[in-house]
Amino acid sequence: MSTRTFEPGTVLIAHPELQDPFFGQSVILVLARGEDGGVIGANISGAPLKGPLFEGGPMPAPALLMLHAAKDSVESSRPLSATGYAVTALYPTAEGGIEPAGLLAKKPANAMVFLGYAGWGAGQLEAESQMGMWMPATMSLDDLIQAPSAERWTRAATAAGLIEPAAAAPAKPDSKPPTP
User: Fold this and answer.
1) pLDDT at 92
2) Domain count along the chain
């Protein structure tokens, strides 16, 4: 089996059987690869912490990370391959205190801002993928971003065939079987 290399812009879905307090039922967007082969990503399926601020991962970051449309003119943004999105680091004040309100006030519409990140050492994410813990999403990043955050994993896992559509949508309590 060949080893995949996950480049910035790759969207990964956690396998339904992955039991992890942070990564279970998560959708991860690869934001960067280090020169050493390590990977930095953000969980785009988590619930907002407050307003547009999301928990990007369990690792503390020196900056907030903002995912936004590449067409938005944002200083120091880095495009994520051909996804149509870019990532920008929003740095805290010189005093070391993050002032999310001030930083977030400057964000483009529909941008997601992450506090923290998910990180993997060189080859770790690829090894986890070979073990079946992660698989590339078949949905576009744009479709995932447009979905409510609470539905992103379910939609991505259904589209990828990891779960059945019936398992993805709870039955309506007042629904009755059709009469023959």
Assistant:
1) 64
2) 1
Q: For the segment 45-55, what is each residue's pLDDT rounded down to a tens digit?
A: 987 887 778 89
Predicted pLDDT of residue 110: 76
Q: What is the model's pTM?
A: 0.81
Range of the structural domain that residue 87 is part of: 11-163
**Residue 169 belongs to some domain of the structure:** no
- The answer to whether position 113 is within a domain reads yes
Predicted confidence (pLDDT) per residue in 82-98, tens digit:
778 888 887 765 555 55
Structure-token pair, residue 54: 């999301």
Strand 53-55: give its sheet, edge to edge: 48-50, 53-55, 112-115, 64-69, 85-90, 78-79
Nearest by Cα to 12 from 41, 37, 52, 49: 41
| CATH number assigned to the domain comprising residue 18 | 3.40.1740.10
Structure tokens at 51: 């307003």
User: Would 145 be classed as within a structural domain?
Assistant: yes
The pair of three-digit structure tokens given for residue 97, joined into one six-digit string: 């205190």
Q: Is residue 2 part of a domain?
A: no
Q: If you write DSSP's letter for every residue of 91-151 in order, what string do you get?
A: ---TTS---HHHHHHTSPTT-EEEESBEEE-TTHHHHHHHTTSEEE-SS-HHHHHHS-GGG
